[in-house]
Fold these 3 entries.
Entry 1:
Amino acid sequence: MSNTFGTLFRLTSFGESHGAAVGGIVDGCPSRIPLDEAMVQRQLNRRRPGQSAVTTPRQEADRVRLLSGWSEGVTLGTPIGFSIENTDLRPGDYREALGAPRPSHADYTYRVKYGVAAASGGGRASARETAARVVGGAIAEAFLGPRYGIAITAWTSRVGGAEAPDLLATGFTRDDVDATPVRCPDAKAAEAMVREIEAARADGDSIGGVVTCVCRHVPAGWGEPVFDKASALLAHAMLSLPACKGVEIGSGFGAAAMRGSAHNDAFVRRPDGSLGTGTNRSGGVQGGITNGEPIWFRVAFKPTATIAKPQASVDYEGRDISVASKGRHDPCVVPRAVPVVEAMTALVLADLALLSEVHAARLL
Amino acid sequence: MSNTFGTLFRLTSFGESHGAAVGGIVDGCPSRIPLDEAMVQRQLNRRRPGQSAVTTPRQEADRVRLLSGWSEGVTLGTPIGFSIENTDLRPGDYREALGAPRPSHADYTYRVKYGVAAASGGGRASARETAARVVGGAIAEAFLGPRYGIAITAWTSRVGGAEAPDLLATGFTRDDVDATPVRCPDAKAAEAMVREIEAARADGDSIGGVVTCVCRHVPAGWGEPVFDKASALLAHAMLSLPACKGVEIGSGFGAAAMRGSAHNDAFVRRPDGSLGTGTNRSGGVQGGITNGEPIWFRVAFKPTATIAKPQASVDYEGRDISVASKGRHDPCVVPRAVPVVEAMTALVLADLALLSEVHAARLL
Amino acid sequence: MSNTFGTLFRLTSFGESHGAAVGGIVDGCPSRIPLDEAMVQRQLNRRRPGQSAVTTPRQEADRVRLLSGWSEGVTLGTPIGFSIENTDLRPGDYREALGAPRPSHADYTYRVKYGVAAASGGGRASARETAARVVGGAIAEAFLGPRYGIAITAWTSRVGGAEAPDLLATGFTRDDVDATPVRCPDAKAAEAMVREIEAARADGDSIGGVVTCVCRHVPAGWGEPVFDKASALLAHAMLSLPACKGVEIGSGFGAAAMRGSAHNDAFVRRPDGSLGTGTNRSGGVQGGITNGEPIWFRVAFKPTATIAKPQASVDYEGRDISVASKGRHDPCVVPRAVPVVEAMTALVLADLALLSEVHAARLL
Amino acid sequence: MSNTFGTLFRLTSFGESHGAAVGGIVDGCPSRIPLDEAMVQRQLNRRRPGQSAVTTPRQEADRVRLLSGWSEGVTLGTPIGFSIENTDLRPGDYREALGAPRPSHADYTYRVKYGVAAASGGGRASARETAARVVGGAIAEAFLGPRYGIAITAWTSRVGGAEAPDLLATGFTRDDVDATPVRCPDAKAAEAMVREIEAARADGDSIGGVVTCVCRHVPAGWGEPVFDKASALLAHAMLSLPACKGVEIGSGFGAAAMRGSAHNDAFVRRPDGSLGTGTNRSGGVQGGITNGEPIWFRVAFKPTATIAKPQASVDYEGRDISVASKGRHDPCVVPRAVPVVEAMTALVLADLALLSEVHAARLL
């Protein structure tokens, strides 16, 4: 199942970073959903490298082509195949990895697992595979938005020592997020983040960070106990991302220091008569099932492993060497991870939506 | 798939907290593995309530019965069915939940999802379902231990404000862990944790905490890119646990503040000629695949939602009420979560082991 | 996945023929479906050995116990665990299989696959495992009947040379089917079938046969193109049964000799204005999707492999031997296969129903 | 799961008959397997329309492009994406289906299920989707051939009233099969089959048939009890093919008329000391597990539903109409179904092979 994600709304992806193309198949998307290539391209453009001074100068047109499953602007209910040709190939940039494993990269583990020399550019471990996730997520959003009104918004909440204030209650859009090069809608924090990235780049180094994501208007009742809790699927989705080191939902690790009386979200009656909670430390999920409050969670990313600064390491023969990358890499993956986090979130929610339709039908 | 976990080594579980029994089926366990009920019972006993002054006084004999899949002390390769009868039923303790949802519990979401009044005792959302996980994990360990020499050890590393020092490099056993009532092998930290729990209990309150887990002797090459990375499956497993709010592997959220040159794990040559890493911020997983170093991760648990202290909330009709539980609940789930974290880890590793056998075979 | 059947409505089963118990878990059954043990026991009784002169004299009380997932006469939406204790154990009957593989039985292949001596009584290959299927099917019918009005009826349509006339258009019930010891509602054919079985038994031999099954009131639109066509899932289900050698839907192998103009089912307008077909060579499935006409198919069963008559064979060392069973076996599995065919059909339809609810929801 | 086939060796396919492309992803193929586009193209060419006088004159270049998962002539262990552009589009040929459902075609059921007007050319129900199966099967064979020496050969054994003699014991190759336009290696039977097809075509009609398939050198021990028996997976695979109406393995429906003493396959000692069976009515599978004998089975196909001959039917409004196709269709699908049957067989065996590697590893 390694290259398939989801139970009913499923993305299967393919593609090495420097092969002919990356792409995938979305299976399970309902029929009669408005969809065209422009809708998908828009989100894909947000992941593209070379967008700003703080990202890699590698240029990829990243044109998505939807090969099936839609006709005349709507989905058919059949699988949606898609591909994105790889155009800016420079395998030479990556040849250095063949003789020695890059520290904290996947060269060594892929070689152990597959018995093949690390393919140029890290092969399947490259962040390039996330392009297929973004396409899948855009299709998922084409379903989630019109049908449920769900809005998923992620942003950079931390880069190195620069941290944004709590923005959960703030109303902002993806356009607001995109207004700063680091994708942090708080202008002041964004400036500090840019400085962190520029300083790291100047040192031939890289820097880590955190993405926060909030999902509004998710109906109550989604999530499949016990093993496929909404929170568990989101955690699975996030930790499947390159460079991700942790995830916390709602109160997260902060909950470890709290007492129940301070942590519990008391129920309140909403104006429409339905039940809500006055606080949202649960992060919108209780017992693994959504409760109608916004879902929110934070995702930690490590600093990019490939850096220009020389590092002492050993080669495959165990000889001491110095490793220094000449490739084109982002000093901080976090700004470009923002649309990828949104995409994986959309895939999880679309899957839970379909599973929930089953339950809803049962209750008629 | 909600009640099944795993691809090749699979646990499917059943059972409400106050129904006739909890149990499950382990499918995919290799044949000819030494197994008997005593091996499983030993780990199940560690999860049992009523073990110490800091846990719930609810008494459950929790006798597991292995109904199939083994004969004369070894597994047959066929599914292993098992059941644990529920014996200490007091549905009355939970009746209060029928009229109003307990804050931060699953009463409300289960009712929305399934359209049934919250079954007595929280039904499937009760921590009682974790007994089946522990049985599954014990069977997984019966496979992982003899075949690969894998040792999984978890402990309580934090309760409220009491935190244990970094114990990763320390050699200790499950017996050492069990030597303190909170399952923290550092005696001084354990005392502080006990005080946190006793103070919370005295206030009719509860307290959160963190479990740290380390897996030694896991071979390099396990984990299925891209969506079923070892780290992603562990995150899925942990967030599927009741009360879990976050997970971080290796450097975790700390990585967000670090630079690549400080975070990267340089390769070194081990005495046996193989490659290792001098540090282990990767947490034993690189590119989603194990690298032969110890896997380690931390799991955050919120304070128990059900507390004796009265809380202001509303009932299903939206009327203001005061909620105060009379049930028997742990003021802190963390000590009893330790064997459950180990069990889920074992299930993940057993699944990755079998998937890895496929790969290993390919390389012959 | 070997011991799990289904995608959303799933049966996972366990149990060797002569171990402690057989049983399973039904996961995915909707909540609020009327269910109790008596409903399940009724169908299980139809599978029980020792019911008539033409079946094995082995006696099994076969009492099913539903361990979870229901309360006060309705399902909870949570997994339904169940077990059936094995009571009439005579392992000695089967010991003969340890030194030599019984011809056309699974002794040899299980030994090759699992590396264990054939467990007493054939272990998991015994028809005893079908008891769990019947329980799963009865639960599926509890859902399919009230919700959709679906009626599944199977009968013995052939035993050896005795074949029933075409009964598809005949209105008869399960009671009519059960009225004859061979479960053929045509009295005259039933008599000929009994004679076939008695003659085989008298010779220490066994005899094959065919079960025909019809499903009425299945809504149009069920079935998942392209790989999980309704017909494909039914074929999978049937060929997973012990002793099954073939399946054909609608015109089946007869279609090979026909022309399109004679085979095609022309559409007609039904009295209620909907479309139907005047003939039903499609067997109720077109392009893998149900069309609202009755689904019908035929299932071929080989003669029981274990016979009293001595057969020349070789043992595991390759030495010539004569094999003759002293165990208690049905000379013809077909009459008892009837409720098992119904059960697997119900499991397939319940799964397709839930998958279809997803589609139906999409079209609102 | 509808567009994914397999557990470990998995094909996910996409593509409408008259959209931009058909294609798919093979996930789970081992690394370091020799593979290039020519190997795949060779088998794909055998499925191509327009090959002989007895097939449709529709011309498709059907050039496969392998987009990922291989490099320098070997597989990488990563998913293999592929696409085949659709080039000979004539949507107008199919427009007639929009107002009325073609009898015994999938127009009506797709419309009920997906709520979209039947896409031009039958959309996903078209036999064109089988091109992706053939690519998947060719990749599976690239694995099965070199590693296990498995040879899969299918041929046309019946067309209408023309039936080939029993050819199981005959040694012939795919070249021999391809030597006749109907893919029957028996020259005399092939002539009769051609006459059946020509006669049907002359009448504006179509004709059904049977494909027989044999798999040699499959190791003993493959197949996953109880629900994923080798025979069950093959049946699933075959009934998932367009126009398939039945499958029988080994003795098949003939077993229904036999006695056990005549049906059982006695064991014999092979020259190499291993056990075999003197006869092979089991079809190479016992208890759902391969026994090392050739696997053989027969697959029934109905006559093509779309015929030129006018048929009385009704349109979607229930009005009487006469339907007569002007599209380009094979009067008999069977000759072109031969490589598709081989492909699905290869996919099943590759999946069982990988599952079996797990078991084999267990027994070391």
Entry 2:
Amino acid sequence: MSLSTILGEIAQEMAARTDRGQVADYIPQLAAVDPDQFGISVCLADGTQQSAGDSATPFSIQSISKVFALALALGRLGDQLWSRVRREPSGLAFNSILQLESEQGIPRNPFVNAGAIVTTDAALGQRPPKEYLAELLTFLRSAAGDEDIHIDRAVARSETETGHRNFALAHFLKAHGNLTNPPELTLGAYFHQCAIAMSVEQLARAGRFLAGLQHLIARERVRRINALMLTCGHYDASGDFAFRVGLPGKSGVGGGILAIAPGKASIAVWSPGLTQQGNSRLGTEALELLTRRTGWSIFG
Amino acid sequence: MSLSTILGEIAQEMAARTDRGQVADYIPQLAAVDPDQFGISVCLADGTQQSAGDSATPFSIQSISKVFALALALGRLGDQLWSRVRREPSGLAFNSILQLESEQGIPRNPFVNAGAIVTTDAALGQRPPKEYLAELLTFLRSAAGDEDIHIDRAVARSETETGHRNFALAHFLKAHGNLTNPPELTLGAYFHQCAIAMSVEQLARAGRFLAGLQHLIARERVRRINALMLTCGHYDASGDFAFRVGLPGKSGVGGGILAIAPGKASIAVWSPGLTQQGNSRLGTEALELLTRRTGWSIFG
Amino acid sequence: MSLSTILGEIAQEMAARTDRGQVADYIPQLAAVDPDQFGISVCLADGTQQSAGDSATPFSIQSISKVFALALALGRLGDQLWSRVRREPSGLAFNSILQLESEQGIPRNPFVNAGAIVTTDAALGQRPPKEYLAELLTFLRSAAGDEDIHIDRAVARSETETGHRNFALAHFLKAHGNLTNPPELTLGAYFHQCAIAMSVEQLARAGRFLAGLQHLIARERVRRINALMLTCGHYDASGDFAFRVGLPGKSGVGGGILAIAPGKASIAVWSPGLTQQGNSRLGTEALELLTRRTGWSIFG
Amino acid sequence: MSLSTILGEIAQEMAARTDRGQVADYIPQLAAVDPDQFGISVCLADGTQQSAGDSATPFSIQSISKVFALALALGRLGDQLWSRVRREPSGLAFNSILQLESEQGIPRNPFVNAGAIVTTDAALGQRPPKEYLAELLTFLRSAAGDEDIHIDRAVARSETETGHRNFALAHFLKAHGNLTNPPELTLGAYFHQCAIAMSVEQLARAGRFLAGLQHLIARERVRRINALMLTCGHYDASGDFAFRVGLPGKSGVGGGILAIAPGKASIAVWSPGLTQQGNSRLGTEALELLTRRTGWSIFG
């Protein structure tokens, strides 16, 4: 069966689903998103791209931005980053503060919120946030081959106003000496990177470098980012995602997931309804169907 | 470079290492093992097997047995097993009891001790332990194509005498209704399966079904066991193992590691010295060198 | 108003109450107790004793026995006991195992189950459990001035059969080297001491030495046991008990509470219905009324 | 022996001690305090006051202010306060954030930092912080009968600059809806109340209402504040303080302790060196000697 047929079937099956999960509602901009949307897009090794559903609609990539921030932070600091953040699954929710207290302010990995704040702080360095955000957008636009990728300012503003839990994490990190910038400054950059809007078509293209279909960073580094996505990319549901989908992936609370089939495909999927753990419900199911039908699982 | 050359070089490099970690010392039989030993063996898709170092010396496979117990338990119960044990990294040490208390006696995964005890209890069913252990040995001997695989009774006896922490886990599981047999019975089976002795040559052959080089169980099930090994196989160092080695793997406190390159190779390595987390120190390093030189990482 | 009138009124008020909490149901002997019972008894400094309600009915003293076991353990070991158990509120449930793991097998205090098992192990020493239990009964009978105090063997047997959580604690303590006897042996003594049956009349008399109305142990030791009862005697409801009642007290899951007004009175109360935290619901309320009406709070 | 003689002897013994603990060093103003100082002062039921040592030297009362803030908050809200903060020992360090996460932003008691921030937020209400601080100073000056009690602005400023851990707590509380004011506002009031400077002579007089020697608030409320001080006033060393000293007490990181012997005495002691748990080392020892020599323990 052709990939195009598979994607079309999956989009149809997903359209028929009624148990779509709950849309994130902590800020009005996300709460207002129509839960009935679904989009999927796949970039292949042969350079082609196949899509189905609402594949051109931009959505808030939220935590998927952590993958790109990690790539930039590693570019600036290299392996020094790993003295400030570890590479282990946390076994806890994405916004938990528990381990920070018992582990001296060193977050478990770059994808839980605490670790992503440290990563952004590292990628930011001593530059003004604007400069860092410009670099990030340039990276994304270049990776996606599309200039039309922007930050949604209203989303960034809402995140800042309601982000008390992230402020708690940032102040805790600062108290442990694991934040070089003032909490407000690092969080400013963090909230803006989370507010980047992209479509699955743009996102799948932007992820090609992780699938080895585009050379932007060293292969060794790509492998390691993929390993981190596999073990930590879905927080305390990472084990289940690996078990069911069998691909490295990173989810965002906007309902997007970027998944990587190394050497084969970069895949982006989007459906706004979330599971309890904050990952796209239909997005995960669509990816499970996709790997079952394509045999793309990295596990055999 | 040929695989045989690569393995020879790795064995030589490992022989020269002085920082070998600490041999497990909680029972005399493990404490007495010579720390200077190192063996590696690889079974390939073409049916050949290459080895280097002390590849024919039997060692106590310990927690590597959890992989085979899981295969048997899934064979008996199928997906019903997942109502008794989850599929998530714990973020805690292999013998931690913390999550059992806050998570109502449902262990995080089949590879932490609590989860492995549940898995063994499930694989055991209402049979006498002897019958289950006979089935397990038959499975291993058939998978390895070698009748000379046995349980080291002295090791099993020592484990039983000193295994108070595992008794604590088993009674806790029983208190939560997540153990069908009396704690002593299930632990009897558990301690005996951990005391199976194999060489890396035998172990690499026994793992071929997980690499898809031998058909013993359904491919879907193989994929899932590999996913679990990747996310949970090295306890609270699983993230680091994925990051550095890039293969599903399961370690044992006897110093062995079974690693799987799906479609390509089944790999067994052994060196008795352990890291703080209880995984073979040189074994991990040898696998890191091997995947770097062969390009077998599943992450690109 | 005379104490006799106060007690009579309280018994009447309690008889009218319908929200009596749930009777412990983990063993049949406790589950079968009639929840409508209530008894209270008070021994005064002048040597008199006043009682009301079902004051002569024996009930299972359960964890109240921990106070007397502590007195015996201190008698045998003196301050050496404090190297094996601490003197701090745990902030957790009575049967929690969490802190044992993070605090190297040293329980927080002698009244949480883990700490009581250590205390019993210390009081037991190298003697056969029978000998220790005989000493404990002798102590209680002498303190109460009543030979008719016994162990309910059926209760002890049921506790042993269902006590998997206590077995887990004991094995965990053993694994950390904080149990001198085999877990079964110490638990045998522990389950039997919990199964002692007494009436509130007997219990109030047995508690006189803690109120300074009878000299059995050094005054300094009495003070310290009272301090421990105040801070730890009601587990994770100890703060609330101090806040509402204002007296050192120790509860048991059989529905009894022993409370001490130093220099003034030894008080025993019993009503089988429990709160969520496992303390007698009406017992606590009766004590709150009593201290309000007598002004016996130690807090002013 | 007269109280005056006892205090003189204690001051002499303390002057001879070399193991004085470490002075708090997280802000320069506290780090600069001479560790060799010691002062003690006692107000008795007969209206007299006895002091010894550096009893007129002002020091930063820090967390002792939480007692007075609690009195004001209860005055404003009454028992409604208990829906926002509990009355249980936490079993954790004074600045821990762990329980906030697992207990939905409701702090364990008003004396751990999180609970004190909530209490201050409640006492503050919708007023400007200045107004609340003026009320607090008026209360303290009136209770102590001394107009010369002030806020040390330099200490308040330093606390604000370095108080990232308290900012983390406040934002976490805000995220859970348990802070009515913006975190900066409540913390402004909190840091200023902690920066109040008093001598032990002033502090002992200010504590008389808790000993029942002065009527400022209802007796029932006094009893409850004393109960809270006993169970929670020294954080995770509260059990030990009750065990050794036997009085309700509240410590501050400036080295002060206020202790209450209900009906008998209000006691203030000060020595800047701290234990690991952040309580005055010699202060605690001096109180232990005092209660042993006076027989003031509330436990018999």
Entry 3:
Amino acid sequence: MTIANTISEIVRIDLGDRSYDIVIGENLLGQASSYLHLPKASAALIVSNTTVAPLYEAALKQALSEHFKVIHTVHLPDGEAHKDWVTLNSVFDTLLAHACDRQTMLFALGGGVVGDMAGFAAASFMRGVPFVQVPTTLLAQVDSSVGGKTAINHPMGKNMIGAFYQPQRVVCDLSVLKTLPPREVSAGLAEIIKYGPIADMAFFDWIETNIDALMACEPQALAYAVRKSCEIKAHVVGQDEREAGLRAILNFGHTFGHAIEAGLGYGEWLHGEAVGCGMVMAAHLSEALGFIDAAFVKRLTGLIERAGLPVKGPLLNATDNAGKYLALMLHDKKSVAGDIKFVLIEGPGRARVSVAPEATVRAVIDRCCA
Amino acid sequence: MTIANTISEIVRIDLGDRSYDIVIGENLLGQASSYLHLPKASAALIVSNTTVAPLYEAALKQALSEHFKVIHTVHLPDGEAHKDWVTLNSVFDTLLAHACDRQTMLFALGGGVVGDMAGFAAASFMRGVPFVQVPTTLLAQVDSSVGGKTAINHPMGKNMIGAFYQPQRVVCDLSVLKTLPPREVSAGLAEIIKYGPIADMAFFDWIETNIDALMACEPQALAYAVRKSCEIKAHVVGQDEREAGLRAILNFGHTFGHAIEAGLGYGEWLHGEAVGCGMVMAAHLSEALGFIDAAFVKRLTGLIERAGLPVKGPLLNATDNAGKYLALMLHDKKSVAGDIKFVLIEGPGRARVSVAPEATVRAVIDRCCA
């Protein structure tokens, strides 16, 4: 596999009048040229969090000052535990305190949580204002900032309240990944690895070959992985924006993963860690249902482990662990009429969404948990 | 003017794949046939309030029982003062407590507040579930249930948080209007009268002729007024779903009206009362800017008065009343970059959105307030 020169590449998300570009490259965040040709607006609001703002907000503000007369900022508390209505409301409070109008453009500067909340704020403020994603984690660059899913959590379920709302642009600055803690890099790799078994085994081969370079955040390797991930996601989302069918395959590993996150309490494991482990469990379920062989499960598990991710599910309940997982998965958004819908690997590079017999699921959970 | 036989008429809202029908007629709410051919779902949630539910929920539930296996209900506290996040969240709590899935269909049974909140809940729950409007006030039947505007209030502004989200159907049962208090009838007539000066003077003539029949809730008169109002609104919304331009003319009277509602505290005046008075003020402003003559202002004011609506604005501040109105109007969603956008009558039956000199607006407020 060759790694193309990927500095400042563009991946187009094709959604008719909601189409937009993902711009990928080094040192993009602080360049005014990254924000050319956006809809006209006099004011911008940078939505960031208390961890990311000190690192990158000044550079973004400087770049935006060439395009906007006024730039406001709001800093959310860091972490999935704050992805709730109270935090979201602080964005609305800021917008209204500054008398922002319906042309105000929001900039989501941060990881998936900031992107989800700034996106839902943009979707809802005055019934919709434009926004731009400036993801600063690997996970956000390859997954959450792309495709228009925005949401907050409800005490009874993750991402239960939100909107499909597309950004005007996604600016993926690879340079910011250099400051990312290793645990966050691994979490991002989970979503990158995901694209292999569901859609593209050649990419999976490439990840296996380059996993050490990716773990070390080598720019060329990251650039290729980000671009490829965005291309695959763009292709899927372009066919099914509102998750009527196909798009659900992007949730491979997420049904078990959400149960882990909810069962441990949001924020205990990173989302990517839960997805990594969830993919192992979903692969075992696919094997138990006869779709794939043990060798492929072992190969996928090995790569997930090399990416520094957990491959054993946590115990969520001492007396009926499988029952606890099942109860939590029943609240997954893919569940319909009391049936849990799993994303299964039909064969390497091909996914399907399907129900599964409870006994089989219980056996898989028992086998996969520590 | 002849009044057509309007029992069970259909007005189509043409919005591509978001198109839907408004069904207008007597005794529709409790008939199973009113809910045929909706998307397949196993569960329904009726969202109503503590005033309307005792009157109509049983009949709706009975009718829906032929289409849904399970029907849940949630009763919101009555009134604009409760159109907030806390109340909205009670809808999400109910949906999640019953493990509702993303096919669950919401039914908004009530006036504008219920419709706005159930609609926004439907737009946001799991990023969007289908919903049906069953408006039980005249105002909701001729205005708020049609066109897909949903929202809740923020302490700093009305309808500041919401979505453009279209229902699957609107079922306008004229029979329910018989139990409506006279004050609510008048409030609904404000939005009916509105369609005349902005779009259709023949309809305005008809309203003038039939105002007594409308005040008395005569079914044939109401049926014609509801259908005609929905047709005009459908025509405008069909051209500009997300209020990029033309649709804003439907806010005639609403800029001053929102200031009245916010200044007095939401719920003090009914929305329709504030709009009625706001139309008088906007007409005076249109005259002051030279668009229409005093005779037309007088004619419009006379009809609004005959409809039982206030025509003098309340004093919102003892020392600088006009300044208070201006400050409140600056928070209106139509305002852009610090300019208040007014919907003005350019000539009878024709509206435009425009800024106005502050001195002129102040003079109009001084002249129009009690």
